[in-house]
């Protein structure tokens, strides 16, 4: 075979000179310390073992089975009993009835499953002879690599997950000809003698295939081997290459979720890949990846030579000593974008609790889609860091949830419209998940999800997109018109929870209640988005719209505790059972929502006090929770706390791979995405509107550096996106804005301010002295340069 000449540079790598590289001088001993690659559909975790590489593979549609009917047949009759008990304050009795009559049957929906491990075992290379070892993940081009020396020969491996070729690809090279002798095999699991594979075999001298299943889903993983020089043979379910100069391994996994003949599909894709050179596939991959990744540039300043010289794991660990490492924080920011690009592409399923990377048959929380914060957090960075199209898998899933949720609304709640509870899977399951009062019976999951659809509209102003999904808002409102009940003069959700938290009401401890603060905030947001979409699209005001306007006015307003001065979490002034609870649900209106505004000083101060109370009681003890507190601190313009949060997130709640640590020792990816979004929120905010000139209040107000980390004295960013379709770049020095460039994608007026850094902005002889806001009247495609002037 003749794949092409090996023109590698086999000098030792200098990853310390690459600011966008994660790099290590030791192999990954734990799965959590492996390097992730992915193309949205296929994922691989790379340990980087010199003598025998193990790539843990995943395919995003391989779950524990197909769709189920889990609706409890007694739900409709039980609901009335639960509602009556909650109004009477009998939470424990209501929770028992809910456990029996509202819980899904069976309790759990489908869970995400691992593929298996692709082994590449070197023959003739001894562990005791290894030197010069390094492994890396290069965010600039979406490649990973391993380098080591043995017996006077330098060996190098490179790994990619290609979207255009739809395969995982590995290239093996050596500094001397004829030194590559390897065996390629697939096992599931790698330490269990392949006991979860139904059939495995080799064929045509260079291909291997393994067939396995989970429930009703059948899957196939195949690999195809090409090489330069040497010889090969197939033996058993292995392909063995001997004395080669260069080896390529292509791998694919297919399931019956996507095609009727997964074996045929895998063979077709592998044959297409094998017909091309590795370099051709690599070049195509890099072009595809960089088109997304290269949209945003980011720098919080320069690190020291000593910091740059440390491998990623050592560098992360030294953050606990207190020194700010700006380039490392910038690397972490971009790593979050890399993960989203790698785990969510149009045509795939959304990034789940672990993105697409899972090696457990029973992963934490099923590695599903938890929709009372976690799935939503996965997509927080998508709009602001200019990865808008990566939301499409989320929007596709919402449509599946809608279909399932209509039936749940009818049979469980005797209502029109649709809803979802706090978990779902790739089939859009909407029956309650778990027998668990703090979370299972919360009916607002779908409402939170559709907020992402309206956010996409706010960033793009794409009316055709809004028209496509308008029915989701309309029919969600239909459900709540039927579902809301009366309580002390208000219209409330019943049952309700403040997701996953519990309260004390005298001698009673409970989780279920009516009309939690989060529910009311989410519903006001849903109704307002429906009203705005109706106006934007020029739709008539139906009777439903008129009814919902009345309902909105009857929702319980945000309330401040007369005892504590903090924003109340429940409809009554209860105490939390856990003051440092990981969920900040009652602060949804602060972030990611925007109901809580600085102009309403009483409510704003109460929200700030509630955040301070939670944090003082050790909230943020999971990666995703700390990411949420970081975003909240950014929203309240507290850059000092943002910096402290990021340090805590990186030191205490992040693995050496920079993957988020959910609960202790586990991996849960939402903290990575939330961390990236929170850093962006500290540098650019656009959730407010400005009407200082007596306008209609719908002119976006862009705040530049609203919560800059104090140790980021000098820096820049480029390509962050503000609502309204404005692409923003900025530079700062001495903690103050020096330059801002606004690029307008769709035109229109926008207000810009850097007042939070003590700077006014000036442009073409005009400045922001009046109200510290500069108003630009932009045209589509126009670019506007502003300079910062100290006041």
Automatic annotation (TrEMBL):
Residues 701-786 form the Alpha fucosidase A-like C-terminal domain. It comes from the Eukaryota. InterPro entries: 6-hairpin_glycosidase_sf, 6hp_glycosidase-like_sf, AFCA-like_C, Alpha-L-fucosidase, GH95_cat, GH95_N_dom. One of its GO terms (biological process) is carbohydrate metabolic process. Residues 305-316 have a biased composition (Basic and acidic residues). GO terms for molecular function: alpha-L-fucosidase activity. Residues 22-257 form the Glycosyl hydrolase family 95 N-terminal domain. Residues 300-319 are annotated as: Disordered. Residues 277-683 form the Glycosyl hydrolase family 95 catalytic domain. This is Alpha-L-fucosidase 2.
């Amino acid at each position: 075979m003749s794949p092409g000449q090996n023109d590698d540079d086999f000098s030792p790598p200098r990853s310390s000179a690459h600011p966008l590289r994660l790099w290590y001088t030791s192999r990954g001993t734990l799965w959590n310390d492996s390097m992730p690659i992915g193309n949205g559909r296929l994922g691989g975790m790379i340990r980087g073992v010199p003598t025998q590489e193990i790539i843990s593979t995943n395919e995003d549609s391989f779950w524990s089975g197909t769709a189920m009917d889990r609706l409890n047949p007694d739900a409709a009759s039980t609901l009335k009993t639960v509602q009556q008990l909650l109004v009477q304050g009998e939470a424990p009795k209501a929770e028992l009835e809910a456990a029996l009559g509202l819980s899904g049957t069976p309790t759990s929906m489908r869970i995400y499953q691992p593929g298996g491990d692709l082994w590449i075992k070197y023959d003739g290379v001894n562990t005791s002879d290894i030197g010069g070892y390094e492994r890396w993940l290069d965010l600039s081009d979406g490649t990973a690599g391993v380098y080591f020396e043995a017996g006077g020969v330098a060996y190098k491996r490179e790994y990619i997950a290609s979207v255009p070729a739809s395969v995982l690809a590995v290239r093996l090279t050596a500094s001397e000809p004829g030194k590559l002798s390897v065996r390629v095999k697939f096992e599931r699991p790698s330490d269990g003698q392949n006991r979860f594979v139904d059939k495995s075999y080799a064929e045509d001298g260079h291909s291997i295939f393994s067939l396995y299943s989970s429930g009703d889903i059948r899957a196939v993983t195949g690999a195809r081997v090409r090489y330069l020089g040497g010889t090969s043979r197939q033996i058993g379910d292995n392909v063995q290459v001997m004395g080669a100069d260069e080896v390529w391994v292509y791998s694919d996994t297919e399931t019956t979720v996507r095609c009727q003949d997964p074996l045929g599909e895998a063979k077709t894709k592998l044959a297409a890949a094998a017909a091309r050179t590795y370099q051709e596939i690599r070049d195509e991959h890099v072009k595809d990846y960089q088109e997304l990744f290269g949209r945003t540039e980011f720098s919080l300043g320069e690190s020291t030579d000593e910091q740059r010289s440390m491998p990623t794991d050592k560098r992360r660990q030294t953050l606990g000593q207190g020194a700010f490492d700006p380039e490392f924080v910038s690397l972490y920011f971009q790593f979050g974008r890399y993960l989203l690009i790698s785990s969510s592409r149009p045509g795939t399923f959304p990034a789940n609790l672990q993105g697409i990377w899972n090696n457990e048959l029973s992963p934490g929380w099923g590695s599903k889609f938890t929709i009372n914060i976690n799935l939503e957090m996965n997509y927080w960075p998508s709009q602001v860091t200019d990865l808008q199209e990566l939301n499409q898998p989320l929007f596709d899933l919402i449509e599946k949830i809608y279909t399932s949720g209509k039936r749940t609304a009818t049979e469980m709640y005797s209502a029109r419209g649709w809803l979802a509870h706090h978990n779902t899977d790739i089939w859009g399951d909407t029956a309650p998940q778990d027998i668990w009062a703090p979370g299972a019976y919360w009916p607002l999951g779908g409402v939170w999800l559709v907020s992402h659809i309206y956010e996409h509209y706010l960033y793009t102003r794409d009316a055709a997109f809004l028209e496509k999904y308008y029915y989701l808002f309309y029919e969600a409102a239909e459900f709540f018109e039927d579902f809301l009940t009366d309580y002390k003069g208000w219209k409330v959700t019943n049952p309700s929870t403040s997701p996953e938290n519990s309260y004390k009401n005298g001698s009673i401890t409970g989780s279920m209640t009516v009309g939690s603060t989060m529910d009311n905030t989410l519903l006001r947001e849903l109704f307002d988005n429906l009203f705005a979409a109706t106006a934007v699209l020029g739709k008539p005001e139906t009777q439903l719209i008129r009814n919902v306007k009345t309902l909105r006015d009857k929702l319980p307003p945000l309330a401040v505790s007369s005892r504590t001065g903090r924003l109340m979490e429940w409809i009554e002034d209860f105490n939390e059972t856990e003051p440092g609870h990981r969920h900040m649900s009652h602060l949804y209106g602060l972030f990611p929502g925007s109901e809580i505004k600085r102009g309403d000083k009483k409510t704003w101060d109460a929200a700030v006090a509630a955040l301070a109370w939670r944090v003082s009681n050790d909230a943020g003890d999971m990666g995703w929770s700390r990411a949420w507190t970081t975003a909240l601190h950014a929203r309240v313009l507290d850059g000092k706390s943002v910096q402290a949060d990021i340090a805590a997130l990186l030191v205490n709640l992040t693995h050496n791979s920079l993957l988020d640590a959910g609960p202790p020792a586990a991996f849960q990816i939402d903290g990575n995405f939330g961390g990236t979004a929170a850093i962006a929120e500290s540098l650019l905010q656009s959730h407010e509107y400005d009407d200082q000139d007596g306008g209609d209040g719908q002119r976006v107000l862009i705040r530049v550096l609203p919560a800059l980390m104090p140790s980021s004295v000098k820096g820049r960013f480029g390509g962050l996106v503000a609502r309204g379709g404005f692409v923003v770049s900025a530079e700062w020095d001495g903690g103050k804005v020096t330059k801002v460039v606004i690029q307008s994608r769709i035109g229109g007026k926008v207000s810009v301010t850097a007042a939070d850094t003590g700077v006014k902005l000036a442009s073409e002889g005009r400045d922001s002295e009046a109200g510290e806001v500069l108003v630009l009247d932009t045209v589509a495609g126009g670019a506007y340069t502003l300079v910062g002037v100290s006041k």
